[in-house]
Amino acid sequence: MPAGGEVLGLTRVKLLIVNGDDFGHSQEVNAGIVRAHREGILTSASLMVAGEARDDAARLARDHPSLDVGLHAVVCQGRSVLTQDELGALVDARGRFPNKATLTGLRLFFDGKLRSKLALELGAQIEKHLELVGYLNHVDGHLNFHVHPVIADILVELAVKYQVRCVRLPREALMTTLRLKRNNLPSKITEAVIFRALSRRTRKKMYAKGLRSTDWLFGLHQSGHLSEDYVIGVIGRLRRGVTELYFHPAMDVGGTPPSPAAQFEVEILTSPRVREALDMHGVRLTTFAELANASAAS
Question: I need a labelling partner for 104 at 20 to 30 A (CA). Which of 97, 111, 167, 297 fits?
Answer without folding.
Answer: 167
